[in-house]
Amino acid sequence: MNKHNHVPWWQRGVIYQIYPRSFQDTTENGIGDLNGIIQRLDYLNDGTPCSLGIDAIWISPFYPSPMADFGYDVSNYCDIHPMFGTLEIFDRLVAEAHRRDIKVIVDYVPNHTSDQHPWFIEASSSRTNPRRDWYIWRDPQPDGSPPNNWGSFFGGPAWTFHEPTGQYYMHQFLKEQPELNWRNPVVREAMFDVLRFWLDRGVDGFRMDVVGLILKDEQLRDNPPNPNAAHNLPENDIAGRFLMVHNMDQDEVHGIMREFRQLLDGYGQRNGRNYVAIGELWGPLDRWVRYYGEKGDGLHLPFNFRLMDEGEWNAQVMRQLVDDLERALPSFAWPNYVLGNHDRMRLATRFGGEKQARLAAMMLLTLRGTPTLYYGDEIGLENGRIPPEMLQDPQGINLGPERTRDVARTPMQWDITSFSGFSNVEPWLPVSPDYEKRNVAAQTAVSTSILNLHRRLLWLRHESDALSLGEYRPVDGNADCYNYWRAAGEEQLLIALNFSAERQFISVPGLGDGRILLSTHLDRTETIMGTFQLRPFEGLIIQPIIA
Ligand code: NOJ
Question: Could you give the CA distance from residue 188 to residue 190 in angstroms, rounded to a whole number?
Answer without folding.
Answer: 5
